[in-house]
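so my prof wants the structure for this chain in the tokens format not the other one, which i didnt know existed until like an hour ago. anyway here's the sequence
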Amino acid sequence: MSTQTVLHDPAGLLEGGLPLDRATHEHLAKGVLGWTGVTGLRPADVQRIALQLTGAARAVAGGVRRTAAQLPADHPARALACVVLAEADRDLVTAPHGTLCCAQGRARLIRARYERLDRLTEAAAPQPSRALGTTAPVAAPKPGFTSIKRL
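here's what i got, hopefully its the right format
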């Protein structure tokens, strides 16, 4: 008989403070997606890998959720993120199995969530008001003021 400790953190406060280990997640996902046919691993080992991928997919989904929340409610990227997160929630609700198909499905989820996170991070980044190297139109000096020439 095994025991489990379940941590209830509905606000995601603990998860939000932890940085994503992106390189590790991506390497594991890439390796699993490279599997073809027989892996030589026992089903229990494949299931452990699928569990690890599931945890990583949930962590990335949390990052997507937090980044989307930074965008205005009417931002198109936020709406798309909600759709993507709903798909992830549906895919992650089932327990992982010790099959190649399941592990590769979780690896695809990680890859897709990181792509969405990158797009959201880009959308949430402050946009410069004008392109570098351009100049804003200069208003005519007000009467009584002397114009100063900039070098």
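also thought this was worth mentioning. Residues 61 and 85 are 7 Å apart (CA to CA).
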